[in-house]
Amino acid sequence: MFSQSVITTGLAVIQIIVLAAIGYFLVKQRILDGVGLDTLSRMTVEVTLPLLIFCQLIKDFSFDKYANWWIFPLLSIAVTLIGLVIGLFFLKFIHGVEHQKQFLGLVAFQNSGYLPLALIASLLPKDKAEPMLIYLFLFLLGFNLVIWSFGVYLLTYNKMQKFELGSLFSPPVVATLLSLVMIFFGLNKFVPGFLIKPLGMVGECTVPLSMLVVGGSLAQISLRAVDKKAVFLAVLLKMFVLPALGFLLVIRLGLPELIGLLIIMQLAVPSATNLSVIIRHYKKEDLLVSQGILFSHIAGIISLPFFLSLYFTLNMVK
User: pLDDT per residue over 35-83, tens digit each?
Assistant: First the structure.
């Protein structure tokens, strides 16, 4: 079991790195320029991601079927807060306000969607994968609201600018809230399947597009200018300290197997690729984000299989 999970999770992370490498190659070869990269970023934030959220909620979610659905969005907020608190303890080692904000983003927000989806499909049998996918889906309700509201605010806020409440309602947040309102009032039943299918196809482009943006952003920065201490510390906290704390917490509380797995998985996955999309979309200078995403995914080839395999081994023993 240990060796199987090591291979599966390692390959999943490598596949994501390959997608980013394609974006890196396109920019380096000048097939894709800065304007094109901005267009891809805007398309991801304003079109494909909102459609992905809308279609998934309309098709799969029901308040009656998942009466305790609210637990998982709250759990996602708790996971973000744990990362944020840990990051704040080490903020004194990071110099510069913008560096500090991006450092906190790297530690607080994780690659919570498509990498866990791939891991669940690959690692769990069908009888456990089905409820686990539902848990993940509900978890993402809270995560998308947090990263596209507080995450955007954290990375883009400038004290010299007047804060606007509307800035918290980015397209992904609006799509989430609109979907929930429609489901609550039963309006989702009137959305025809022939409309959901093409919208869903566009939404499925979110993952590759976001990774192209990440890779392209990496190609536009100089690795010589990397703040090695900040990036190293972010990767250390994100990929080793947080999953270790999560592992101890889950064992201490004796949580159900799948809920414990969800917590450890979310604390063990690399930094969120959407951070790079946010930085580019709101035209902020990428000081740490892309490097942190890159190196956290590289570190994840080792750390992610280790923590997941350790958890699986423990549950087999029990």
Answer: 888 898 889 888 998 898 888 888 878 888 777 888 999 999 999 999 9
| Residue ranges of domains in the chain, CATH in brackets | 2-313 (1.20.1530)
Beta bridge partners of 110: 271
* CA 83 centroid distance within chain: 13
CA distance 243 to 73: 19
State the Cα–Cα distance between residues 153 and 149, nearest whole angstrom.
6
Dump pLDDT digits (tens) for 179-214. Answer: 889 999 999 888 888 889 999 899 888 888 888 888
| CA proximity to 81, closest of 142, 135, 172, 141 | 142
**What CA–CA distance (Å, rounded) separates 123 from 311?**
12
The CA distances from residue 272 to 127, 176, 179, in Å, are 28, 19, 23
For the entire predicted model, the pTM comes to: 0.81
